Amino acid sequence: MTNGWTDLKETDCALIIGSNAAENHPISFKWLTKARDERGAKIIVVDPRFTRSASKADVYAPMRSGTDIAFMGGMINYILQNNLYWKDYVVNYTNAAFIVGEGYDFKDGMFSGYDPKTRKYDAKQWDFEMEPQADPKAAPKAKTDPTLSHPRCVFNLLKKHYSRYDLDTVSRVCGTPKEKLEEVYRTYAETGKPDKSGVIMYAMGTTQHTVGSQNVRSYAMVQLLLGNIGVPGGGVAALRGESNVQGSTDYALLFHLLPGYINAPNANADHATLEAYLKKETPKGGFKTNTPKWVVSMLKAWFGDAATKENEFGYHWLPKKDPKKNYSWIALFEAMYNGTIKGLWTWGENPPVSGPNCTKEAKAMENLDWLVCVDLFESETAAFWKRPGADPASIKTEVFLLPACSSIEKSGTVSNSARMTQYRWQAVQPMGESKPDLDIIYELFAKIRELYKGSKAAKDQGILNLTWDYGHPITPEAVAKEINGRDLTTGKLMTSFANLKDDGTTTSGCWIYCGMFPDENKYRAMDRDPAEKAKGIFPGWAYSWPVNRRILYNRCSADPAGKPWSEDKKIVWWDPNAPGDPAKPEDGPGAFVGYDVTDFNKFLKPEKSAAAPFIMQVLGKGGLYANTGMNEGPFPEHYEPWESPMKNAFSSVQLNPVVKVWEPDKQGSPDQFPIVCTTFRLSEHYQTGTLTRNQPWLAELQPYMFIELSEELAAEKGIKQGQKVKVSSARGEIEVYAMITKRWKPMEIDGRTVHCVGMPWHYGFAAIAKGESANVLTPHIGDGNTMIPEYKAFLVDIKGV
Amino acid sequence: MAQPKIGTLRNGKVYRFDPVEVAAHWVHTISFFALLITGLVLFAPGGAGWLAKLLGGVNVTRLLHRVFAVPYALISLPLLVFFSPRGAKEWFREMFHWDKDDIKLMMGYFPEILGRHADLPEAPKFNAGEKFNSLLTLFTGIGLTLSGIIMWWPQSFPQWLVRLAYPVHDLAFLGMCSMLCVHIFLSVAHPKMRAALEGITTGWADAEFCKEHYGKWYKKVVTKG
Amino acid sequence: MRVTRRDFLKLSGVTAASAALSQLGFAAPAVAKVRDFKIREAKVSPTICPYCGVGCGQLVYVRDGKVVQLEGDPDNPQNQGSLCSKGAALSQVFDNPRRVTKVLYRAPGASAWEEKDWEWALERIAENVKKTRDASFIETQPDEKDPAKSYIANRTEAIASLGGASLDNEECYLLTKMNRALGIVYLEHQARI
Amino acid sequence: MAKTLYIDTSKCMGCRGCESACKQWNDLPANIKGDLKGEKFEFLPFNGTYQTKTAFAHQTYTMVKMQELAADDGGVKWLFGKRQCMHCAEATCMMVCPVDAISRTPEGAVYLDKEKCVGCGYCVQNCPFNVPQLDYNQKGIGIWEKKSSKCNLCADRVQNGLIPACAKTCPTGAIKFGDREEMLALAKERVEQLKPKFPGARIYGEKEVGGTVLYLLTEHPGYYGLPESAVVPWQVRFWKYFARPVGELAVGGGLLVILAGLFFNYVMPAKETPHHAEGVK
Q1: Which end of chain B is more exposed for a tag (fewer CB within 10 A), N or C?
Q2: Nearest CA to D114 among A738, A130, C34, A732?
């Protein structure tokens, strides 16, 4: 989330697409209800089915699962054709005026630079035309045309690209009636005014597609066109599904990152040494130019005194990926299925329920020599060897089920969707012999290290040199101090990541959290001042990285001169009379002031800060056009899901050209499986249900696995309310209850009736509330950038039992 | 030994009821009293808290109430009908047969209860008071049984009926109670009517008593028989 | 810890007052005795809901080591006292008869769990880790084009780590450090799925 | 000052936080059969909707009633209505309770004291909203302890300065608790606000059964499982105002007869008459 949960009350319009906020983030509706009551805000819900969110919407539009880009492309087209974009914002704060190089081209669904052999694009072809720079170290600058008239400026390319997304075609693809499309577009485009803001709220309904990343980009582009980024009540709100999925991502429990969103190193020439790595990973412009300070400080935190300039601060003790390999979820399970992976530990993760094509993933686990499962309950993962149909005697895996304790039995912090890190105070002693994961990890690694004691082998030095002394008993505060980091010259805790250095004199385990523990007795995650300063900002409550900022890109809330675009939407603004930078008295008075911590050096003159309001971008502007970072191309283009009932109406390219097809033989055809299926979550259960399906109160609230289908489909198939049905896909078959509901309606897709159904994916064979897992049916195919599996759109058939 | 004929006079006593009639009366009496006591605990538990305790608590009392409801509803009447058809016939005939004498008798009952003399016509086997008591017993019994069944299995009946069952049960039980007061008083405490108790207990009642109180019957059955 | 708890201040005041009143015989006469106020003497700890990403505040009321009540934290700006069905039911995670409270071990081919102690289990796991790691360790990787050149790889592809989104930050950090020190690259968590 | 709940169904999104919060505060078990440590469990049968709790139970003081309706524009409406004891001003349960286990708190809640309850079930049968339900606990062969159970409007919380658990937990403010007058004013204002979009918007509970918990409904009360006109059942009135007084009068009469009989026979016996003398040997 660029803004926060409490900020939702400042919105004038919330577009809920790819999420079911009322159901899965019910508290968001506390704030949306407030916005509606107090500001007359509108709530729009776009979803294949009529959800609990839809029940409270002003406008509900059905949309076939997997057609977000068509839907949003249509909105971009509508906004541009009807001049509903906010020109001042677009010209000043986005890259609309940038001139794109001549290498860029787009024909029949394909951008220029594609290599069909590797299924990859050469992104260089999409570069901007750059201003020549005399100083090679200076921040790069693109050529621009602020009049937006150059035929190759981003704005005109954008206009051209989305001119194909007319209402008729979009309606034919999405199955949304034309008048509903227009109603949504018109209502949401209202926010493209200085005194209005709109927020797009999305979740896994957006990302779990082969085009998931581009779906998100299409939202961001609409937000940029309407000037909704960096203002209260605006932003792109990724509603994160777990209490600390933000934190676990920040700390890079992902193969491709190091803590703080730094790319993980590869075993190749680019990353052969620390110097080469830093050179490669440090851009010339934007805030990321500080990357070396973050990396070196992290290495110093991890390897302590053993990290010296001579040994590249222990850089080589980090694992280097095979640059040709992908280690993401699907690849991981393919590797396990093929026998490469021999040992696995899971920390509250439950693949036999949550993995795509989970039958295969559970089968893959049989190849493990050992499995360590850390959980509160006996999950389907822990019990995979006795799952229905398995023969325990033939499964040679050694399984350890380590009892972890719950959130109320331990202390520590979690970071919510708004990057707010809040402290949890332990309330009760851990149950039985269960332990906090912190203790488990601490003790486990100590045991492993014990076994390597005295080793001189190079490969073991990382283990032996890792800083691992947090006292006994270990406390979260001791770890948090290491994360925050210290100035080694003074021994004091760091107060801000601005002070980090790349010479080994500072440490910080994760730079974005630097400054959260500024003093030995002050863990800002414990701050509990419940007062609202203004505009939904509660600065005294806990800590939001970076530097306790609550609204990212907040420079955009004021015009280039630093004056708020509107009184109602002001967050930070230039006060020429405020005391200036004490370090630079020659600059005189003047500073940005307001309700939030500025996204930039607040003493920078407004014109300067306006030049780069998107500080993490190399070129400083909001990216309507993504010359880098997106594998499929600079503009989101609609491709059909891997399994789709129709031919792509926008081009001859059916599937996202950069995705990897893992199991071509497991693709279902629309003849055999004519029904579009999606998966979803219920308010009453959490993810794979290991926690909630084991709690009597919640188990009774939703005890059964079911499939939702329309009355029309039920009539066609002769299915009665509440009976058992078999649902099948090219991957498998499950038996579930039929929930016949008015909330699903058949859609008119490409001139014919297509049925759509959906089911919750919380269920498995363990716990009190049991049921067959929806993911038996989902495919092993992922997004072109993130490899997030396409859980949300696949084909099935259904018949009564 | 063969049963004597009804109306047989022996040692100054008249054979008034056969053992089945006697049994039916007492099964009914005992079960009714049991239901009355256990019912009181449920009807007025606040006032009858000590009683509930005596009986082993409200829950045990509730069970007992149902236990006694079975003989109450299922035994007395069938017993009489199947095993003493004669007695049943007489009882039914008498209870539904009212003539001027009965009415007159009924009217003169009150002074009689108070021990005052009234010049009353002669009665058949059952006098008017007993007839009235019988009628009330039969109809409240049906009412109590039917409403009791409904209250026992409320799920099986429409809600309006269940709701109605409560006042019906209460009304029937209270009506029966009021009659019962008089009935017990006469049979146990009234100096002159007490003799009737012997009749319904042993089957044999004092001949003089019978002659006085059931003149018509005495003349018809005993004297002629 | 700095806990500003308007509610319990208010609460304890009211409680004391009502207790005093009832001692003086001022308890409302017409009213049935209302159930004992179960959180009267409970100790309260603020925490954050472990479910979705909203980060709602919760208050846990504990008496004699038992959770007697759990409800929304009115001070937390996210939820201001509100909780959804999951958050409001959280106390059932604790004291749940289905919780695993001992280390469980399933030997290869076995058809049932056996209880073990922590020490044994951690040692056994450590041995497994070392065995798998040492047998699969890739120290260097040759250049894609020039096989004469090679780069330090320092990884194992035989061990995988999954999960972390339900761990605390401090735990995630330790886990990321441990995984990397061991050379684990098959490293994923819930953000991917 | 009478306090009440005000439930604005137009704001309820059916998250069912109130259902959990209610169980938490009142320590109510789940309606599940089976040993919690075991593997086999039985729930209420699948009914094809999200509303898995279809009726009140001794474990269920509150539930969100859900209803799908076809909308005029071809779409669908999904109604949510949080239900619990209505705390009627003219409370049938209070009228019929033979042991005064049900009484009113000074704050206006109809409070059911389980300690006093004897489980007769009269309140269960006669509630116009079918709210109270019996809790059966087997105490021996054939011996069941029965206790009527229902929402007490968290009287213990309210008397200690807190608001009911459901109102506190409600994310959207669909459940509010406060002075009745104030709540009614809110509801009236809201009806006016909603009328243009929801022509069926109305207040429920202002007059019903003398006034109950206040609801703002957007559709006919029937869709929320509420009777269109809720009144004290006629049977209860018949019972309360006829059957019992008449019956008690009759019993009183009977007892009077006994007393009189005893008095006149033993204390002031009549003089022997020849008629009677004949009868005595």
Answers
A1: N
A2: C34
Query: Which residues of chain C make contact with D15, given a CB cutoff of 8 A?
Result: 84-85
Q: Quick check: bond before A473 cis, omega within 30?
A: yes
Q: Which of A184, A700, A720, A801 to mutate to test the interface with D (most CBs of D within 10 A)?
A: A700
Q: Return the residue of A nearest to C159 by Cα.
A: A343
- CA A609/CA D133 separation, integer angstroms: 67
Single-letter amino acid, residue D200: G
Q: Determine the CATH number of domain B1-17+84-225.
A: 1.20.950.20
Contact C51 A413 (CB under 8 A): no
List, by residue range, all CATH 1.20.950.20 domains of chain B.
Answer: 1-17+84-225
Per-residue tokens: B127:
């006098």
Q: Are strands C184-188 and C150-163 parallel, antiparallel or unpaired?
A: parallel
Domain boundaries, chain C: 6-93, 118-192
Three-state DSSP at D243 gives: helix
Considering only CB atoms, D21 lies closest to which of C13, C36, C88, namely C88
CATH domain C6-93 topology = Phosphorylase Kinase; domain 1 (3.30.200)
Q: What is the pLDDT of residue B224?
A: 56
Radius of gyration for chain A, computed over Cα atoms and rounded to the nearest angstrom: 26
Nearest chain A residue to C126 by CA distance is A448
3-state secondary structure of B173: helix
Angle at D186 between CA D182 and CA D190, to 5 degrees: 170
User: Which of A247, A466, A683 faces C169 most closely, judged by CB atoms?
Assistant: A247
Overall average pLDDT of the A337-346 stretch: 98
According to DSSP, residue B120 is labeled: -
Measure CA of the first residue to CA of the last residue in chain B; give whole Å: 20
The domains of chain A, with CATH numbers, are: 6-133+145-238 (3.40.228.10), 329-416+419-451 (3.40.50.740), 563-607 (no CATH), 664-800 (2.40.40.20)
In angstroms, the separation between the Cα of residue A537 and the nearest Cα of chain C is 9
Residues in chain C: 193
d(CA A610, CA A589): 18
pLDDT 10s digits, C154-191: 999 999 999 999 999 999 999 999 999 999 999 999 99
CA distance C80 to A27: 10
Please state the ipTM of this predicted complex. Answer: 0.92
